[in-house]
Amino acid sequence: MKNNNIQIEIKNAKIIGAFFLFIFLAYGFGQYYFKSDVLFIKYIGAILILLNSTMVLLIGILFRKTLLQYNATVGNVYLFTRIFEAIALAIVVLKLFFKVNISDDFGYFLAMLVLGVGSIPMCLTLYKHQISPTWLALWGVIGYTIFAFGFLMELFNKEWSMYLLIFAGLWEITFGLWLLIRKRKN
User: Fold this and answer.
1) For residue 152, what are the CA distances in angstroms to 47, 102, 115, 140, 170?
2) Which residues contact residue 57 at a Cβ distance below 8 angstroms, ignoring those fewer than 6 apart?
3) Which residues have CB under 8 Å from 163's CB, separation 6+?
4) What's this model's pTM, rounded to 2 decimal places?
């Protein structure tokens, strides 16, 4: 029998929710500024990219605490996913300090592919243990599956990700908002 009244406590829910929302701004503006020819603006972009990676890492660390209560493997996989994403997105900043030939796109594509694949078990855990509303958990499973497929195709030079990332992107915004506004367990 399903309990329609979500009573699962998500540790640090509001912080995680805020991070889910702020990572879009930090990475979006960071990438934009990082492409500037003005060194000061480029440094601001680098700081925002590193801030994004820090928040991505903290999402993994903080949300793992909740996931471990239900499935240790999923909690650890999700943490690894976020660690990989944080490193892959931040590595472009090395261009400021070293003469390295790192493709901005390849690191991004790989980070997003790993994020998509690693987030599917997390969303399945949300569904199985009724940690979030059913519709939100299933949207995450479907959205991240489509998202991962789009970024897998990018590795084969098929420019599909731009069309397929919307499902997971909107899920992350919705999930972040849900974490911020949901009522805590009494």
Assistant:
1) 28, 19, 11, 18, 19
2) 82, 83, 86
3) 150
4) 0.89
Place of tokens 């909690």: 75
**3: helix, strand or coil:** coil
First to last CA, the chain: 21
Distance (Å) of CA 113 to CA 36, 54, 82, 105, 107:
27, 19, 11, 12, 10
Segments in the chain forming alpha helices (H): 13-34, 39-67, 72-90, 104-128, 134-154, 161-181
Task: Write the pLDDT tens digit of every residue in 67-107.
Answer: 999 999 999 999 999 999 999 999 888 877 777 776 768 88
Tell me which amino acid residue 73 is.
T
Contact 136, 178 (CB under 8 A): yes
